[in-house]
Design a protein that fits this description.
Length: 446
Amino acid sequence: MARLFGTDGVRGLANVDLTPELALNLASAAAAVLGGSSTRAKVVVGRDPRASGEMLENAVVAGLTAVGADAIRVGVLPTPAVAFLTDRLGADFGIMLSASHNPMPDNGIKIFAAGGHKLDDTVEDAIEARLASELPRPTGSGVGRVSDHHIGGGEYVEHLLSTLGGPDARPLEGLKVVVDCANGAASSVAADAYRRAGAELITIHATPDGLNINADCGSTHIGDLVRAVREVGADAGIAHDGDADRCLAVDADGDVVDGDHILAILALSMRERGILRNDTVVSTVMANLGFNLAMRDANISVISTAVGDRYVLEEMRAKGYTLGGEQSGHVILAEHATTGDGILTALHLLAEITRSGMSLADLAAIVQKLPQVLVNVKGIDKAVVANSPEVAAAVLAAQELLGDTGRVLLRPSGTEPVVRVMVEAPSLEQAEAVADTLCDVIRRLG
């Protein structure tokens, strides 16, 4: 039987893969595993604005209260806000309903342990194991209760501002910024955070209706942001995904500043200020080779993990590192957050513009990226690809062809039914040619 949890919780087509029944049972099982010694576990429950979240929230709350846990609903908020509130409210664990950057019909369940930390594999496995168990069902006063915490968004914004020097600090003063909220969870709090930090703000795609989340907007569709930045003459643009746990940026010319650039900019700033632990940044195997070369030249060590911010987080927590992230824009500032936080990241990135007196383009120029091609091959059994001698031989041949000037990476997605083929090479033409050859080999397996 396939593992239920992927690299970022449980995710699938709402009401087909992720049903109310599964959500109810998963919440009950999580309470059994994470409730600890509490006679009445306390659980924070939040969601992004997609329509199916209303249905699944009710199922999760029912699953919690059915086994005697109290549910604290915080409403539509970013994933990192739910992690923050799990810690702030002293909850035994938290549940976020979101499929992040996935299309609206999908949804997901992310679970945070006490303190707002992501679960490790062993805890997820324990929760899955309890799904098949008959759990005690209290009656009378033993049934869990439900409450609403309406001020969670305000508490989260105050926390964000505190990381910039306090509620009266205005480090973004003088910057004109466009923010694309992806018609997602950022729409509820982002404008308040950026404006109070001093930015002259223009928001786009900030009117969620439950159906338009991630629809041709946000960090996966950055064209509208590029156009808006150019049209209004902004200093920078920020694009969030549906649950605002990541961000991408664009400079004044509309050129994309991705997670590799952002990590490099923050790493240099933090090292200069003496807060980059061991002069080390944690990234993933998907980081562009240009990022690694830039960090080497700056005498900053890079530790690479498997793809997924949870693996970055595990390495950071194990060694006490203060900065890590992914090319996709998941960035973890461990001094201020327990998980990737797109709004927090963007605030600190923008603050570096004013602190340094440099434009975003000049800051990002530290990373000279190699041409990179990423192709998603769909409709192929990921296990077959992983065990195929033909694929292994093709990858070896590609790596020998590129030598030290590029690299090849094949990775099955942890959240979607695709195999990702990534190739870096000295030229875009060569990267595309190598990627096409590898994709042809993979598709023949189908």
